Fold this protein.
Amino acid sequence: MIRYPYVLLDADNTLFDFDTGNRNAFRAVCETQDIPDTDENFALYETCNNAMWAAFDRGECTKDFIVIERFRIFLNKLGLRRDPAVCNQVHLTTLGKSKLLLPHAEEVCRTLSRQCKLYIVTNAVAAVQKSRLAGSGVAPYIEEAFISEDAGASKPSKAYFNYVFGKVPALTTQNCLLVGDSLSSDIQGANNAGLPCCWFNRKGYAHPEGLRIDYEIADLRQLYNIIGVV
Ligand SMILES: [Mg+2]
């Protein structure tokens, strides 16, 4: 008996090894722009990057703005004169080619897709995400990918999930399970939209206060039991 015939999967750090792809993209920026590729510089870039995505999640600025602004702030802090738009272009192009999957992602998508319909729900730069999905090992098992940039809204907003529901009329708030690693976008989004959710807590983070988490997994294969596939 399939408990959730529709599965909404986050992409980055749920199916894709975003962390490795992101580190490789930073290295490519350093190599092409003559910036020292050190762990300290990467940590500094991550601080700038995370601050900008947080501002985006709060609805304070556009994606086109933040992707360049993160490099502008990073370069300013280092006192380097480089073109932040060029840095961003190298970064996004490299990231778009990164198709590294997390352990068991391909096997789990293949197995689930025999009895469920799988969709991707992701906040990201549409061009990057489409390029990565298209050539990835999970592509054959995914019905459709819903990218925030196309939706005109992003997780965790209810408007984003309304867009997804508009695209898949068979979806209800009972027959789908949202699976994601992010508390602030995935789990908060499922809470906002009233959807069952599963937190992919790969790194064993502490439980947050005030969020409904229906299931928690540390390995994607645990979805078999939760969803009820055999
Ligand atoms: Mg994620």
Remarks:
- The pocket of magnesium ion is lined by residues 10, 12-14, 180-182 (CB under 6 Å).
- The two ends are 9 Å apart (CA to CA).
